[in-house]
Specification:
The structure holds 2 protein chains of 2 kinds. Chain A contains 12 helices and 9 strands. Chain A is an alpha/beta fold. Chain A has a 5-stranded parallel sheet with strand order 7-6-5-8-9. Chain A has a 4-stranded parallel sheet with strand order 2-1-3-4, sandwiched between helices. In chain A, helix 2 links the parallel strand 1 and strand 2. In chain A, helix 2 crosses helix 12. Chain B is of the alpha/beta class. In chain B, 31% of the residues lie in helices and 23% in strands. In chain B, helix 1 packs across helix 2, helix 7 packs parallel to helix 8 and helix 8 packs parallel to helix 11. Classes of the chains: A alpha/beta, B alpha/beta. Chains A and B meet through helix 5 of A and helix 6 of B.
Chain lengths: 319, 428
């Protein structure tokens, strides 16, 4: 499967992978490849978004994603504003749309939004002219994470087509799993969801993935093992007996990793619960690319900002 | 003596198996006579219904009028106006007001407000349990004395099987049904749309169909045990229809209603709406297979009534993210058109059966006066134009709220006049 990159993104927003074509995904990954080089310069900055304003609107706690966006914005010379709100004030007080309209009065060019409600960025995109970038909405999507994961895989394997990717953990509540599934299946990879059925959403096979109720058969011959955090804050106690039992049956341990292909990559979107979904020796082992994912995240977010800006200014990598 | 003659209409009245051109004479708020031709008495007002259907007044078993307590969403007066503007001569209002209608004084208040509005008849539904808390029975007998026609903890499913059993038993003494919002709160917890492939695809938490079905199954068994009358509100799944059909087959005293939106929309339309909360209601919109099963239930007579579950919400509280917005949509001013367009013009049922589902059927379910044009009965009449084409325009609603998914829908057929107690209370 070879995909021609699109010449530009068709939407002003990036609200989810589900709205992207294979060509657009290819374009984002190719652009990130060029931009990765910026991080290796002594002066890690290009003037691409000089004079542009980016609002980072984080309605849910985040460290990694927020910092990654901020680094990407700063490397592109954008002006950044950070706005955090507790989830409680969002649900009871000013509506998101009102918040956004107030922000629009300051004329930002981009709003990066993380929100506990699925669909919040989509609604925002309808009412404000700024480009909306979804940094995670509820249990729906986390498109930049999906893109950086795919980017990391492509850098190692040179392709996505035909890769066997295991995603294991709390699939039901994972926007990362969903964005990865949309992206990887679109690009021709085989996605294997591994989790007890209490952590799999109903009808998930219709996303084009394979499901496994135990992790061992999923790992057979896999190219990638992506472990998801067991999100205690999204669990009721009935989904899972205990973290101990989860580790016992579903965690990625050195023994289980041997079931995968020799060259298999170990990935994790973070933050990790060592000793719950992943054994430390695997997380820190030779096959782990977990920190590379973080580095690649900056390039992906730079690529998205750059492309949504319509490629305005000079090509970032050559300026 | 005030008289009204409705001439040249096509009278459709399932209670008398009538579908023919007839004149209807109304005197002193009652149907005086029906005949193929009635010469206008000199003192009578005359209404020409040529080309129109003259039906016994439509009754909505399930509305939320929000007063007392939530007058910013709807009042008894605005809700009554919306009812008659939608072709309904009577509505049954649910008790989840503030204070809750769990007390005869609240029932009396609602009845007085409805009388003052002087539009649709308003039949209050009382609470099953005090404060809708599901702990102890409300004073059902006292409320029935003040005019309550059924009891329901609508919106707060009766979790405790023993309380449900006692409600079914106790209500027998007063000859009223227990109307149940069937939903297991644990299975439904946190959900905001139907659980299934569509919810999985768009990343919203789901309410499974079985949350409804396990409660229907339980309550059918309790109704069988107790001999109480169970009315299943807003049946929405294939499983519920199957259970009710089987229950009726066994002779259990069970009835059920369905909403117009569950007939027209499926969970796919939630995805198409792009997270618009006007597609959020409880029970949620179900998959196409359930929609078809509900239509089948209408076709074979398992379904007794079409009821709107009219649930007005102010724009400020509805226009939130899908997960945060309250459940519910308004329905009084779209129901008749949706039903005519989807069911009659869609060739699911004929006009006779539609009138049964919106008039005689609901009257029988709650034992209400009306649902017939027999001489001597209250002169509640709904006049329909089967050909009129209208686009739904919420800006023109009489309701205080505008939360509808049907905006812009072009529907064929609708009410053109509403007569309550012989008085023309609304005309298009």
């Amino acid at each position: 499967m070879s995909v021609e990159p699109a010449s530009a993104l068709s939407s002003k927003d990036l609200v989810g992978i589900s709205g992207l074509t294979a060509g657009e995904i290819q374009l984002i990954l190719d652009t990130a490849e060029e931009l990765l080089e910026v991080a290796r310069r002594p002066i890690k900055k290009v003037p691409t978004l000089r004079g542009s304003t980016v609002v980072n609107l984080f309605m849910e706690p985040s460290t990694r994603t927020r910092f990654s966006f901020e680094v990407a914005e700063k490397r592109l010379s954008a002006d950044t504003l950070n706005f955090s709100a507790s989830t409680s004030s969002v649900s009871k007080g000013e509506t998101l749309v009102d918040t956004a309209r107030n922000l629009m009065a300051m004329a930002p060019d981009f709003i990066v939004i993380r929100h506990p409600n699925s669909g919040a960025p989509h609604r925002l995109a309808k009412v404000v002219p700024a480009s909306i970038i979804n940094a995670g909405d509820g249990i729906n999507e986390h498109p930049t994470q999906g893109l950086l994961d795919a980017f990391t895989m492509r850098r190692h394997f040179g392709r996505l087509d035909g890769l066997k990717v295991v995603i294991a953990g709390d699939i039901r509540h994972s926007r990362v799993a969903r964005s990865n599934a949309f992206l990887l299946t679109r690009m021709g990879a085989e996605v294997r969801f591994a989790a007890p059925a209490s952590m799999l959403p109903l009808g998930v096979e219709e996303l084009g993935v394979k499901t496994f109720l135990r992790i061992e058969p999923a790992l057979e011959g896999a190219d990638v093992a992506m472990m998801l955090r067991i999100q205690r804050e999204r669990q009721s106690n009935v989904n899972l007996p205990s973290a101990r039992e989860y580790f016992d049956f579903f965690a990625l341990t050195p023994e289980r990793l041997k079931l995968a292909a020799k060259h298999a990559l170990v990935m994790h979107p973070g933050p990790m619960n060592r000793g719950v979904e992943i054994d430390s020796s695997v997380a820190d082992g030779a096959q782990s690319v977990i920190l590379e994912q973080v580095t690649n995240g900056v390039a992906i977010r730079m690529a998205i900002l750059y492309l949504l800006a319509g490629g305005r200014g000079e090509s970032a990598a050559h300026s | 003596m005030s008289r009204l003659l409705i001439r040249n209409g096509r009278v459709v009245d399932p209670s008398q198996r009538l579908d023919q051109g007839m004149d209807v004479l109304i005197a002193d708020g009652k149907i005086a006579s029906l005949s193929e031709r009635i010469d206008p008495p000199s003192d009578a007002e005359v209404m020409d219904a040529a080309g129109l259907v003259v039906a016994p007044g439509f009754i909505d078993l399930h509305v939320h009028l929000r007063e007392p307590g939530f007058e910013y969403k709807e009042t008894i007066a605005s809700g009554s106006q919306a009812a008659v503007a939608g072709g309904f001569t009577a509505v049954c209002c649910m008790p989840n007001t503030n204070p809750v209608n769990d007390d005869p004084a609240v029932t009396r208040f609602i009845a007085e407000r409805a009388r003052a509005a002087g539009l649709a008849r308003v039949f209050p539904v009382g609470a099953v349990s005090k404060g809708l808390r599901g702990e102890e029975l409300a004073e059902i007998g006292e409320m029935v004395r003040e005019g309550v026609v059924a009891v329901s903890d609508d919106g707060h499913p009766v979790r405790d099987a023993l309380l449900m059993r006692r409600a079914l038993e106790y209500s027998r003494s007063f000859g009223i049904p227990v109307a149940a919002h069937e939903e297991d709160p644990c299975l439904a917890a946190g959900g905001c749309m139907h659980e299934g492939p569509v919810a999985t695809r768009i990343g919203l938490k789901g309410i499974p169909g079985v949350a409804e079905e396990v409660m229907v199954a339980r309550d059918l068994m309790l109704a069988e045990l107790t001999g109480g009358r169970l009315h299943v509100c807003h049946a929405s799944t294939a499983g519920t229809i199957r259970l009710v059909r089987a229950g009726k087959g066994k002779g259990i005293a069970v009835t059920c209603e369905v909403t117009p939106h569950h007939l027209l929309l499926s969970d796919e339309s939630v995805a198409e709406s792009n997270y618009d909360p006007n597609w959020k209601m409880n029970p949620p919109l179900r998959p196409k297979a359930d929609v078809d099963a509900v239509l089948e239930g209408i076709y074979d007579g398992t379904v007794d009534a079409i009821a709107t579950d009219h649930a007005p919400h102010h724009q400020d509280e509805k226009d939130l993210d899908f997960a945060d917005a309250p459940f519910g949509i308004v329905g009084l001013e779209t129901a008749v058109s949706v039903a005519l367009d989807r069911l009659v013009h869609g060739k699911v049922i004929g006009i006779m059966q539609l009138v049964r589902l919106m008039s005689c059927g609901p009257a029988e379910v709650f034992g209400l006066p009306g649902g017939t044009l027999k001489p001597g009965s209250p002169a509640d009449v709904t006049i329909l134009d089967l050909r009129v084409r209208r686009a739904v325009d919420p800006a023109r609603f009489a309701s205080r709220s505008r939360n509808t998914p049907f905006t812009g829908f072009k529907l064929r057929g609708g009410a053109v006049a509403t007569i309550v107690g012989g008085k023309v209370v609304w005309q298009a």
